[in-house]
Please model this.
Amino acid sequence: MAGRRALGRRFGWLWAAYAVSSYGSGLGLGAYSLIAVLVLHCGPAQVAMLSAAGRAVGALIAVPLGPWMEFRRKRPVMMAMDLTRFAALMSVPVAFALGRLSFAQLLLVSMVTAAADIAFRAASGAYLKALVPQADLLIANGRFEATTWTSTLVGPPLGGAAIGLFGPVTTVVADAVSYLLSALGIRAIGGTEARPERTGAPRLRAADLLAGWRYILNHPTLRPLFFNAIVVNGLIMASEPLLAVLLLDHLGFTPWQYGLVFALPCIGGLVGARMAHRLAARYGQRKVLLTAGVLRALWPLGLAFVPPGAPGILLVIAVQLGLVTCIGLFNPMLATYRLDHTAPDRVARTLAAWSISSSATIAALTALWGLLATITGPRTAIGAAGVLLLATPLLLPRRGSAIRKKLAGDGGQEVVDRV
Model:
């Protein structure tokens, strides 16, 4: 019953804004690559560059945004990032209609939206921490995670159908409009948001750019969780394009079969997210977090042994279902832990640093694994990522410790964090 507890009208509007943009992103998943191939007739190297460079440069652009937004009201920042993404994405169908769309424009749009995504996530995390009581943070993060997997389940198939019926830029328009609706939803939250009090120097300094990373690396349990998360996400995401090559090219899967083996397992993500609060209440958040963190590393190696035909379809579905269920359980636990154990005047910088590092790692490993697959073949490269993932549980916190830290705004009370 706790998982169904109402969190208030203001959270309802925040969740609605998140949902509409999430479904828009689900519809537009892979749209850049499709446009690059179908409209601009780009080759594999350019498509890979579009994905990797967009993430890498977007992460670099976002570096000063965390410190910049830390002491600003978060709702205006979130609305500004939504409107930035709306404008950037709408430039694509406009240029397409005028016959002026180019690869350079797609690359620029991917960079701008990647930077805005990072800034929005950091601002929304800080805003959520102030909006929702600490006891309800896991419920809120579980609802966001469940929404993500639901949109991933239904969005891409609908997006593919829309492209077939209405043309290659249709899903980009839908994604753009979803950010406009998200901005309106955030505006509808209403209420007053206190301006955060500035701590430290009155102006942004060069040293402030690294404040988020310093906070993470000096925290005895955020640090191992940080390295575990970015390495696991990087290896999983680096394997995705190689798996597409293996299934579609080498094993002869049809496009609908390929869509099926990735859509159905999203049900596991929804189940994992819905179970997060109940399992944490029964077994403890730390135990569930670490167990899910270990289990999610065990599945991807199975993708290196996919056979052709129906057995291959069933194996991919089973592996992906196990992986996605563990991820759906782990992610809200991690998101809640980060918010619980980050000082209020460090949240935006810490979340921005985390997202920037994740995006940069994914970009670097995607490029590296593309090179490895060129040399060894996609199956071997996928297997190498799976083997490395088996070692990532060693990066998780391994034994309990009592950590005393002072949180700003707690009236000077020391909080003991048992991890």
Q: What stands out?
A: The two ends are 27 Å apart (CA to CA). The mean pLDDT is 85.
